[in-house]
Amino acid sequence: MSLPLPSRQIISNWLKQCLYYGEYLIAEICINLLQKLSPEQASNLGGWICQKIGTKLPVSKIADRNIKFVMPDLSLQERQKIIAGVWENLGRTVGEFPHLANLEQNTKQGAGWEIIGENYLIGQAKRKGPVLFVSGHLGNWEMLPPGVAQYGVPFSSFFRAASNPYVNELILQLRYQAMQQKIPMFAKGAKGAKQALRHLLQGKRLGVLSDQKMNDGIRVNFFGKPAMTSSAVANLALKLRCPIIPGYVKRLGPARLRIIVETPIDYSDLVENNIENVRILTQRINDKIEEWIRKQPEQWLWLHKRWPKEYYKP
Q: How many domains would you assign to the chain?
């Protein structure tokens, strides 16, 4: 005899909560173990595990196709070296995540972080009005918000919410600890976009990682190849006439990071907020991110299908 539907739903919800809680406990145990290690040890462990496992996963073939697509002059050995570096950097980023709140600035050696271009942040801290920060998944990108916040310009950002609400809250708490303050974070999607616009209209700051594929974006070049790209930063900047501050993180070693903040992107020639100007400004942002990636290709996430889907067909 089958259970009535309400009973099935109750059991299903109970099992889901058990699964969520189990995942949360595993995540918390892993974070606690990483925090017991030094930042360098946690970085080394994460990098070693991720490189050993990641390079054997099918997704590494996507990375290889991406690199071959946009850097055809590289040999197979050179591409494999980049992919190994990608996985190592990703693992190090995960291992360092629970330590970001305690990394010291301007240490002479070992774990810590430094910054180049802080004058651009100091200048923004003195002015009123909205500011857009644009970056990509380079180095330990999680270090950018807390590092920038040290100069009086904390910014909110978008995040992809974890399907497990308990794990999601755990991740957010670590980010708040690193920032040393609780600032609004916006979930990706229509609701989050409206909240972010309202945030900027209040004269606050927003950071956007603009390097991933956006199916409902616009087609502009990335590494000289057409790629669907988010036009959010360009749309917001042209609407609000606010500064766009580009910056990224470069890995110097285990838990040793350098934040590089660059000259605001100039779009003074783009007077009107129209489709063509949005395209031009989005292209400028893509060109900037490409410039960073070419300097340190092993520190960017090549693991997703960034270019048109027909390229990835067998």
A: 1
pLDDT score at 2: 55
Residue 50 falls within a domain, yes or no?
Answer: no
Is residue 47 included in any domain, yes or no? no
Residue range(s) defining the domain that contains residue 227: 104-312
For residue 188, what pLDDT is reported?
84
Counting as low any pLDDT under 70, the low residues of the chain are: 1-6
Residue 54 is assigned to a structural domain of this protein? no
- Is residue 98, in this structure, part of any structural domain at all? no
Pairing mode of beta strands 225-229, 213-222? antiparallel
Q: Round the CA-based radius of gyration of the chain to a whole number and report it.
A: 21
**pTM for the whole structure:** 0.92
